[in-house]
Amino acid sequence: MKTPNGTPFRRVLVRAIGGPEQLTLETTDDTPRIRRDQLLVDVEACGVNYLDVYQRSGTHKVPLPYTPGFEGVGRICEAGEAASGFRIGQRIAWINVLGSYASQVAVPTDRAIPVPDQFTATQALMFQGLTAQFLVTEYHDIRPGDRVLVHSAAGGVGRLLVQWCKRLGAWVVGTTSSDAKAATVRTAGADAVINYGASYEFLGELKSLTGGKGVDLAFDGIGAATLESTLQALARGGTAVSIGSTSGPRPAIRPEQLIPQCIRLAGGSVFSYTADPAELQRRAGAVIEGIRAGWLRVHEGKAYSLESAAEAHRDLESRATQGKLYLVP
């Protein structure tokens, strides 16, 4: 069966929990059908994120079978009768719409973000930019001279965090796992870079860089291998924000680990901070303005065909990549 634009409808399907090999491509007559308040979008690119890995591997439960992916960018090809404020052919991005590894996606109007035509696919994919935006605004009032630690600073979110914190006047140290990635972090503007290699050991060097003081704010997306050391890296009254667990489940943290230095451990989800449609548009507007102004530079990522979704997952999990990975239907 053909979609409204005359091409076959294709999607990636996960039928069983497991490794990347569970990602299979399907051509189907089960085409998306939109509700009154939805937009049918021809997908230009769909982002590949660690949340997709967590769902595929069973760390985060999703009913089977399902189509992965929750962010993308594309052009509207059909609109429901209640989908006001949008036009056919308009370019939009979205987050938190499961099923985005597909050639077409039904996007609720309250999730649709208008994006400039001149943006590249990587610039238009909003998940990482929105994540960085809420992280720098919700947990600490970053001021000039504040010391900030960004783990995995060569990754998509990490690189944006470095730039945003520098924009606010912070002194930023980024951690990463190779010399090549360290060069990328320096290019993003970090004041110092720690290459922890395969060991994830960074605390001694960080203490030396800060004269033993530690940092006021830390972003930790690594989890098992770093979180306890991240807490030890905080200055008195500092805040650590746990934003992921790429090395494994986060360790249990006891209150007595926080009390002596009056430090805080926080966590949050960009989906919570963008659940309100007006808030989503406001935060997306800040990201788009930063890109337009030139101070928020989005590194061009790596594109994969929809058939190569498994390869994209393998590359993401290998820690060998930098920047955004995305699929092109």
State the domain count. 2
Q: Which bin fits the share of residues in helices?
A: 25-40%
Low-confidence stretches: none
Order of helices and strands: EEEHEEEEHHEHEHEHEHEEHHEHE
* Percent of residues in beta strands: 25-35%
Query: What spatial form do the alpha-carbon principal axes imply?
Result: globular
Give the CATH topology of the largest domain.
Rossmann fold
* Tally of strands: 15
What topology does this entry show?
Elements: E1 9-14, E2 23-28, E3 38-48, H1 50-57, E4 71-79, E5 91-95, E6 104-108, E7 112-114, H2 121-124, H3 127-138, E8 147-150, H4 156-167, E9 171-176, H5 179-188, E10 192-195, H6 203-209, E11 215-220, H7 227-232, E12 234-242, E13 264-267, H8 270-273, H9 277-293, E14 302-305, H10 309-318, E15 325-328
Parallel strand pairs: 8-9, 8-11, 9-10, 11-12, 12-13, 14-15
Antiparallel strand pairs: 1-2, 3-4, 3-6, 3-15, 4-5, 5-7
Characterization of the model:
Strand 8, helix 4 and strand 9 (171-176) form a beta-alpha-beta unit. 43% of the residues are buried. This protein is 27% helix and 26% strand. The strands form three sheets. Strands 3, 4, 5, 6, 7, 14 and 15 form a seven-stranded mixed β-sheet that branches. A six-stranded parallel β-sheet has the order 10-9-8-11-12-13, with helices on both faces. The protein has a two-stranded antiparallel ribbon with strand order 1-2. The mean pLDDT is 94. The chain has helices at residues 50-57, 121-124, 127-138, 156-167, 179-188, 203-209, 227-232, 270-273, 277-293, 309-318; strands at residues 9-14, 23-28, 38-48, 71-79, 91-95, 104-108, 112-114, 147-150, 171-176, 192-195, 215-220, 234-242, 264-267, 302-305, 325-328. The protein has two domains: 9-120 and 300-328, Medium-chain alcohol dehydrogenases, catalytic domain (Quinone Oxidoreductase, Chain A, domain 1, Alpha-Beta Complex), CATH 3.90.180; 129-271, 3-Layer(aba) Sandwich (Rossmann fold). It has 329 residues and is of the alpha/beta class.
